[in-house]
Design a protein that fits this description.
11 strands, disordered N terminus, RNA-binding
RNA sequence: GUCCCCGUCGUCUAGUGGUUAGGACACCGCCCUUUCACGGCGGCAACACGGGUUCGAUCCCCGUCGGGGAUGCCA
């Protein structure tokens, strides 16, 4: 094989250190899970920070479980996160094909090479045979420690007989009985395994497909992957794979095993904990930039007192494999939401409008041209003004509709508790009526008014009533917005418009 | 059972053979204020345990405990 390929990779930065080639190799058997997303992200960050190459390879060697829908979902999830790849099934590249199901001949050739060297052998045990022997061992009070080597030393006659009988067979790797296999892991440092504990696992299935263990090694080598960064659930697979590299006479890549992501209770992260796939987070209003940012903080840290809220570019600038930790992290939905809020707040006004527009469309909300509103003549412009009054209160896509619904519809969300407390009293009714009358007298109904005009009337009215402005403002806020918390009340009045403001105050007063 | 990994506030983490063990989320209090949020200020809270090594261990070694992973013709 030509190992100079790595040095031909684009964007090399040093003669001494060829640009790395890394890969994310998901199996298309479900959505892009946060664990997978984190693995993909760290590979991507490493590639981008080192001016290397990021390869996407699809490990679809499980015919039963691989689906086209999953393939599409994974690519979609990665695109949503903003993880782009230099080589992959959809974009091609010099090391394709990138779909393992299209590389069967390649695997077959290498299997033959191993078989010729006596390192792979045929195993005629059926799933039932294996299960029966396992049950037997367990029934005798023993522990099944993996394949028992049943077909390891079949004679030529035995093999011929089995083949003549048409018995299906798989291929297993013959692992050494003694010695040890070790490597220096980028994240976990030196790891070593006694070869004795390694079992002869299947490398080629009876259905003619290679197993993950085998295909992964062949592809990583042929695709000239320099660093294999994956979850630490693969640690125990590594010595076995190292033996395959060795059997084929190949130099293995560097390995880096990242700790897994756990649920808030430190158990395996599952649906029980809430969202686990990136598309679910998308539905929950999480911005891709925030998801990427949060995920980057799981197992990695910019260090010291550095800011944690970062853009992808900033993360790339600071990323280093050396700073990836080795202890598993619990997923914290609160912190994700906080980071999401920070990313929303950092958006410029135009971006916020674009972000919120689909939410209005979903509900059929738009600016009613019949309503007189000061300084906004289109839905977009109006939404811009609305979001402007919200300021930093806009920090979640999930709560936004309730926060702004009253600007677009008379059928808005009402917090019953707030209504009872602030509007449902006799005193509040009196104030609301007085305020409505004051507004009607003080301002021209056929005109749109800016916030200060409303403020002047409200404060004067409070004076006339002999109470502090707050006593009018609180009931008015609930009457206008349905809630006890909102943007500045005078801004609300301006954008709700005089006519509707008066209507809502009267309606609320009437319900007292 | 066996093998492997991990163990700093509740959570994410920084960090060092000698530090008042730092930051962030969450939580609590105060200020600001028409509410909430933001912001500002302050608070609560950690080196799992037991042995060593050492003048001195959170840091190095061993053990224990706890958590996670693997133990598939899944990946």
């Amino acid at each position: 094989m030509d190992d100079r390929g790595a040095r031909r990779a684009p964007g090399r930065i040093s003669l001494m250190c060829p640009a790395p080639r890394v890969r994310f190799a998901p199996s298309p058997t479900g959505h892009l899970h946060v664990g997978g997303a984190r693995t993909a992200l760290f590979n991507w960050l490493y590639a981008r920070s080192q001016k290397g190459v990021f390869v996407l390879r699809i490990e679809d060697t499980d015919q039963e479980r691989s689906t086209a829908a999953s393939y599409a979902a994974i690519l979609e999830g990665m695109r949503w996160l903003g993880l782009d790849w230099n080589e992959g099934p959809d974009v091609g590249g010099d090391h394709g094909p990138y779909l393992q199901s299209q590389r069967l001949d390649i695997y077959r050739q290498h299997l033959e090479q191993l078989a010729a060297a006596g390192l792979a052998y045929k195993c005629f045990c059926s799933a039932e045979d294996l299960q029966a022997r396992e049950d037997e061992v367990k029934a005798a009070g023993g522990v099944w420690e993996g394949y028992d080597g049943h077909c390891r030393n079949l004679t030529a006659d035995q093999i011929a007989t089995a083949e003549a009988a048409g018995k299906p067979y798989a291929w297993r790797l013959r692992t050494p009985d003694e010695g040890m296999t070790f490597w220096y892991d980028i994240i976990l440092d030196k790891l070593e395994f006694q070869n004795e504990v390694l079992v002869d696992r299947v490398i080629f299935k009876a259905d003619g497909f290679p197993t993950y263990q085998f295909a992964c090694v062949i592809d990583d080598h042929l695709m000239e992957i320099s660093h294999v960064l994956r979850g630490d659930d693969h640690v125990s697979n590594t010595p076995f794979q190292l033996l395959i590299y060795q059997g084929l006479g190949w130099k293995p890549p560097k390995f880096g095993h990242m700790p897994m992501i756990l649920g808030p209770d430190r158990k395996r992260l599952s649906k029980r904990h809430g969202a686990t796939s990136v598309q679910e987070f998308q539905k929950q209003g999480i911005l891709p930039a925030a998801m990427l940012n949060y995920l980057s903080l799981l197992g990695w840290s910019p260090g010291g007192n550095a800011k944690e809220v970062m853009t992808a570019r900033e993360i790339i600038g600071k990323f280093s494999l050396k700073k990836v930790g080795s202890s598993p992290a619990a997923f914290d939905y609160d912190k994700l939401n906080h980071i999401n809020g920070e990313h929303i707040k950092a958006l410029d006004p135009g971006q916020k409008v674009q972000l919120a527009l689909p939410l209005l469309a979903e509900r059929g909300w738009a600016l009613d041209p019949g309503w007189l509103v000061h300084g906004a003549d289109s839905t977009e412009a109006y939404l811009g003004r609305v979001l402007g009054t919200l300021g930093n209160r806009f920090s979640s896509l999930l709560t936004l509709p309730d926060q702004i619904g009253f600007f677009f519809s008379e059928d808005f969300y009402v917090d019953q508790e707030a209504w009872t407390e602030h509007v449902g009293t006799e005193e509040a009714g009196t104030f609301l009526k007085a305020l409505a009358a004051a507004l009607e007298e003080g301002l021209a109904l056929d005109q749109a008014h800016p916030a200060p005009a409303f403020e002047e009337v409200v404060r004067r009215c409070a004076e006339q009533q002999g109470v502090k402005a707050g006593q009018l403002i609180h009931p008015a806020r609930v009457a206008l917005t349905g809630q006890s918390r909102s943007a500045g009340i005078f801004d609300v009045m301006e954008l709700v418009g005089l006519r509707r403001t008066i209507e809502r105050l009267r309606k609320a007063a009437g319900s007292a």
